[in-house]
Write a structure and sequence with these properties.
Distance between the termini: 28 Å
Helix content: over 70%
CATH architecture of the largest domain: Orthogonal Bundle
Oligomer: single chain
Order of helices and strands: HHHHHHHHHHHHHHHHH
Largest sheet: none
Number of helices: 17
Shape: globular
Strand content: under 5%
CATH topology of the largest domain: Hydantoin permease
Number of strands: 0
Radius of gyration: 21 Å
Structural class: mainly alpha
Length: 430
């Protein structure tokens, strides 16, 4: 049996819902607000890192048989360490807390007075938010019915409604480009796409998607892999369409209200101009549903993985643990979470990109066991050194290397590692 028709669309919608959360809402309009008239070149770069790479990540993991197998082509210890780091980054340490914090910022402060006890409200909101997400996540095989059938269509409808308002009332047009978007908008859009975390998430979501495909009657492993890949393509297409809508909204925001602080502010500006007070309600609904969907997906994915490597705790126990830890961290606030996420993603993303890229050349890498280890090692070492520049001033000399100023300084070292690996003898990992 193959995954087809309505079932395929529902699983694709589910994967889109798991991808599309806080970062996906904030960064496309934020990029466009800064890029202004250079919005579409910037969106082209964003599409590569925030749509193309996640889809390729889903395909790479499905074809390889799991992230552990893919990472094992570097070394078994690397596979375990990298996989755990990836799940913690998209899980309780960064991405899950960000879902609650971001949705809170859009759903509560705009509707309460300046003197309101925001910290108390955040605590109560996080309790309710994570309790509801945990309740759904405890049945991971039901995510397609609950996310794909219900919440995903509502979310897309709200975004389309907002976009339609922009088409009917185009405001003041796009604003001017600023910063790096003036000189290299494509590269800047590509690097900013890291913040969506979707390439890392793509490497982890395969477990839950496979569970949902099997729950729809598909048992044969090859059919599950094919279904996962097709669902990834559907989710990627939906992401691209929605990103274009959000980018148009953000670019209009810069023209109507110059210098928005971030993507959330850009969206707030536009919906306020278009819909008045009701715009805040509309935006709150979009953020809460999107962030809730992703929170459920991430709790499920992390719970499934950690249960697989440490079965002494049941899936339900892991899910509860991650929900509680994420709730605590979410109360630190959005600014603190984002400040930590940037360097962490700057380290993980290059290694993930190298793994994904090499997986598509696996048939030609037979007998070249050093390609994966050296490519990932060179990318990882440079990324770590680049992240340490802020606290180790002598490392500032790295800025003299090609592409470093554009945020892609790891690319040439990774390429050198791959070339060196091709020149060295030895059998490749399976």
């Amino acid at each position: 049996m193959q995954l087809r028709g309505k079932n395929l669309l529902l699983v694709g919608f589910t994967l889109f819902s798991m991808f599309f959360g806080a970062g996906n809402l904030i960064f496309p309009p934020g990029i466009a607000a800064k890029a202004g008239v250079m919005t579409w070149p910037a969106v082209a770069g964003l599409a590569v890192s925030a749509v193309g790479l996640p889809v390729l990540g889903v395909v790479a993991v499905a074809r390889s048989g799991g992230l552990d197998t893919l990472g094992g082509r570097v070394h078994p210890l690397f596979a375990r360490a990298f996989t755990i780091a990836a799940y913690l980054a998209i899980g309780p340490c960064l991405a899950i807390p960000r879902t609650a914090t971001t949705s809170f910022e859009m759903a509560v402060p705009p509707f309460v007075g300046a003197e309101a006890p925001i910290s108390l409200f955040r605590l109560v909101y996080s309790l309710v938010f994570f309790a509801a997400a945990l309740w759904i996540a405890l049945r991971p095989e039901k995510l397609t019915d609950r996310l794909g059938k219900v919440l995903c269509p509502i979310l897309v409808a709200l975004i389309v409604f907002t976009f339609a308002g922009c088409l009917l009332n185009p405001l003041e047009g796009y604003g001017p480009a600023s910063g790096s978007y003036v000189t290299h908008p494509v590269i800047q859009g590509f690097v900013e796409g890291y913040q969506t975390m979707d390439t890392i998430a793509a490497l982890a979501f395969g477990i839950v998607i496979a569970v949902n495909i099997r729950a729809r009657g598909v048992e044969e492993q090859g059919a599950v892999v094919r279904g996962t890949i097709r669902a990834g393509v559907i989710a990627g297409g939906m992401l691209l369409i929605v990103y274009c809508m959000l980018a148009h909204i953000g670019a209009l925001s810069a023209g109507a209200v110059p210098d928005p602080t971030d993507g959330a502010q850009a969206l707030t500006n536009v919906v306020g101009l278009l819909f008045g007070t009701w715009g805040s309600v509309l935006l709150a609904g979009i953020f809460v549903i999107a962030c809730f969907n992703v929170c459920v997906g991430l709790i499920s994915s992390c719970g499934e993985y950690f249960c697989s490597i440490c079965p002494r705790l049941s899936y339900r126990s892991w899910a509860v643990l991650f929900a509680v830890v994420s709730m605590v961290i979410s109360n630190a606030g959005l600014t603190q979470i984002i400040s930590v996420s940037a360097p962490v993603l700057g380290i993980l993303y290059p290694m993930a990109i190298v793994l994904i890229a090499l997986s598509f050349f696996q048939r030609w890498l037979a007998g070249k066991r050093w390609v994966y280890p050296l490519g990932v090692l060179f990318a990882g070492v440079f990324s770590v050194l680049d992240a340490l520049k802020a606290v180790v001033p002598p490392l500032g000399v790295l800025d003299a290397l090609p592409l470093t100023q554009a945020g892609l300084g790891w690319l040439l070292p990774a390429g050198a590692g791959v070339v060196l690996g091709l020149l060295l003898p030895g059998r490749t990992q399976p």
